[in-house]
Amino acid sequence: MGMLSPLLQQATSVVAVRGEGSYLYDGEGQRYLDFTSGIGVTSTGHCHPRVVEAARRQVGQLIHGQYTTVLHPGLLALTERLTDLAPDPLDAVFYASAGTESIEGALRLARHATGRSNVIAFQGSFHGRTVGSLSLTTSKSALRAGLQPLLAGVHIAPFPYAYHYGWDEKETTRFCLRELDHLLETVSAPDQTAAVFLEPVLGEGGYVPANSAFVQGIRERCDRHGMLLVVDEIQTGIGRTGSFWGYEHYGATPDMVVTAKGLASGFPLSAFVAPRELMAKGWPGSQGGTYGGNAVACAAALATLDVIKDEGLVERAATLGARLRRALDEVAAEHPVIGEVRGVGLMVGTEFTDGALATRVRQECERRGLLMLPCGARGQVVRWIPPLVVTEQQIDEAVGIFAESVEKVSLGA
Length: 413
Description:
Layout: E1 16-20, E2 23-26, E3 31-34, H1 37-40, H2 49-59, H3 73-85, E4 92-96, H4 99-114, E5 118-122, H5 131-135, E6 154-157, H6 162-165, H7 169-186, E7 193-198, E8 201-202, E9 208-209, H8 212-225, E10 228-232, E11 256-259, E12 270-274, H9 276-279, H10 295-310, H11 313-334, E13 338-344, E14 347-352, H12 355-367, E15 370-371, E16 373-375, E17 381-384, H13 392-412
Parallel strand pairs: 3-15, 5-6, 5-7, 7-10, 10-11
Antiparallel strand pairs: 1-2, 2-3, 4-12, 8-9, 11-12, 13-14, 14-17, 16-17
Helix pairs in contact: 2-10, 3-10, 7-8, 11-13, 12-13
């Protein structure tokens, strides 16, 4: 009898047969409030009618038009949309299927364009599972176990995770920028450093937001030393944080933006956007891919962007995210097993004092009809990442289930 690889770790036991909006349904009709969104992918909810119709229409016209062989209208239209949404002067797009592929492409371009070999990423980051992107990933040691040495020239600097360090945000940020300077002085000389890769909010690392002083400090150092700032918006982008891009919270503009996940409401599509002058500095033959810019995925992405705009989902993420934070702060105030609530928009983490407690809370939530995901090095953070179409009532329902689950687990701890 066939089976999935035993190395895959299932976050829930649900076998979903249907999805609608913020809900998933199993084969017996049991309904689950889905606050996983397929790891931030179903930004417009499950099977939004406009996305379904766009994909259905495209399937009947052209399924696959390989984009270095032929072009297709959806690809051209999406390119215009993405460059309009990206900051000036980012006006050229590379497409792939998964976020890790676009990170690899951005890494390759950074090295080619600058003629420098080294790159810097931050402790707790997750940028992907292929070798180059995995070399930038430090969210959990199991991801890298048995594979090292990985890509040479990758160096890791601390991220301002104040709760982890036990300091306030200001002191933590000063420490992190000082350590970044020390790394540039002792390990990776600026004239050998091509780029700095940054998540505006650590994803797998624990849903830890950066801050303006930190990001602006990185931007200043990149400008001073001729390094590129590459912002990984794979999980934070497309409205998730209450701004269209996560970096917009911090007052600093990147040199490249990488996007995926919520871009196409569940169809595999990723991209990175860069200035055409920078893109032209890549070496001939260094970009390509069979499925990048797939016609059906592009149609779904265009419909997704229309829905996000027409339904005001970016603003909705900011408003409902504030409601979610207030409610979770109230739960945390009553339960010392929750050490911190943090996040921006509809990307919120509740950090528990123990990873086993967090796991039991998620399992109890599932029994009560709420699906959640973990993150953090020890699985100690329960992440809140509902579809952007989530309602106030659904947020209140989810927080109620969570509070009941925390209460039950705390009593049994």
